[in-house]
Write a structure and sequence with these properties.
The protein folds into two domains: 230 residues, no CATH class; 112 residues, abc type-2 transporter like fold (3-Layer(aba) Sandwich), CATH 3.40.1710.10. It is elongated and about 95 Å long. It has a four-stranded mixed sheet, sandwiched between helices. The longest helix has 30 residues. The chain contains 15 helices and four strands. It is mostly helical.
Length: 382
């Protein structure tokens, strides 16, 4: 036979579940909104800088300059859009956003290379987009440096055949771990899951108690023979199920649609995600207890979840680059720890031996906020 407390929680949960099923807005918010965010961020949000529009003014028009330009054309980082004949054409191309970077080859480029004298190239960048300009500059310098090194070795071998086997003593050979191709989607998608779960779970539960006050059914709940913690857990149960569904959708869309690899333990990911979900639902329940109308509750939920989850979790913006006071505030944002956990599991295949501090914070946060919600709720009117 079912224990009395479990029977009471089941009754409350069934009532809340029926309400959610009969409310298309809650279902859309709980299921469609996460899907829209997944596809929107998955396709639209990228930190990769590929196919940067390139303009070239080749004043040398020599085999050497054409070979250098072919390096740019053959790179996946640049796309040659404009062949200019003057600075005016380069300026117009950059003003129209037909080009974000321009390469200017001087007239004496080939002669200076052939004579062994130092030569120079000019790279013009569109500073209105400083992030892309900085990355594009690094790509361009790497291409020029690689080509210049090859030309120098060829010249050395041609002039001094006896030294043909001599190579520079130091050569950098970078090796990238965890995200070999530096695909930003593999970095963004694991950080997107906590943001979605935090926003949806908190927003849904923030309307729960407020709805009872607005519809006048709080009087019936107050008179029910049920403890406070049984009521709160029972009302959270349907949204917990929706959160599990959102987690499954997020992992499935990431793996099957966006090809985001999951290198770590799916069991550990699920367990810690459920722990995070309890904390997010408790935040929404606490907001719902304080705010007795749905409009205020939804506004508070968005304020508490959206801004911290996007700005202070490390989802997109590196926390290390922020001022010290902002970094200090970010330590109380639970999404920050869950982003670290998911990226560790997704990309590095690390376990609790590495992630135990973040996991301990999730546990403490969930227990603390749930306890605050239970203590704050009073079974009385007025």
């Amino acid at each position: 036979m079912m224990p009395p407390f479990l029977r009471r929680m089941t009754t409350i949960g069934r009532k809340e579940f029926l309400h959610v099923m009969r409310d298309p807005r809650s279902l859309a918010m709980g299921i469609l909104m996460p899907l829209i965010m997944l596809f929107l961020f998955g396709y639209a949000l990228t930190l990769d800088v590929d196919k940067v529009p390139l303009a070239v003014w080749d004043q040398s028009n020599s085999p050497q300059s054409r070979e250098l330009i072919s390096r740019f054309k053959g790179s996946r980082y640049f796309s040659l859009k404009t062949n200019a004949d003057s600075y005016m054409q380069l300026e117009k191309a950059i003003d129209r956003r037909d080009a974000l970077i321009a390469l200017v080859v001087p007239p004496d480029f080939a002669e200076r290379l052939s004579s062994g004298a130092a030569s120079s190239l000019q790279i013009v960048l569109d500073g209105s987009d400083p992030t892309t300009a900085t990355i594009a500059q690094g790509y361009a310098e790497a291409i020029v440096l690689g080509w210049s090194r090859q030309v120098s070795l060829s010249t050395l071998k041609r002039r001094f055949p006896q030294q043909a086997g001599i190579v520079p003593p130091l050569e950098i050979r970078p090796r990238i771990w965890y995200n070999t191709d530096l695909v930003s989607r593999n970095f963004i998608f694991p950080g997107l899951i906590p943001v979605i779960m935090m926003i949806v779970a908190t927003l849904l539960t923030s309307l729960s108690m407020a709805r009872e006050w607005e519809t006048g059914t709080m009087e019936q709940i107050v008179t029910m023979p049920i403890r406070r913690w049984e009521l709160i857990i029972g009302k959270m149960a349907p949204y917990f199920c929706i959160g599990i569904l959102d987690l499954l959708l997020s992992v499935g869309v990431g793996y099957f649609v966006f090809n985001v690899p999951l290198k770590g333990s799916l069991f550990l990911l699920s367990a810690l995600s459920l722990l995070f979900l309890v904390g997010a639902l408790s935040v929404g329940m606490l907001i719902s207890i304080f705010a007795k109308n749905q409009l205020l509750a939804s506004q508070l939920a968005l304020l508490v979840t959206v801004l911290p989850a996007f700005l202070l979790s490390g989802f997109i913006f590196p926390l290390e680059n922020m001022p010290a006071p902002i970094q200090a505030v970010s330590h109380i944002v639970v999404a920050r720890y869950f982003v670290t956990i998911l990226r560790g599991i997704y990309l590095k295949d690390v376990g609790l031996s590495v992630l135990w501090p973040q996991s301990l914070f999730l546990l403490g946060f969930a227990v603390l906020i749930l306890l605050l919600a239970v203590l704050r709720f009073r079974k009385k009117l007025g």
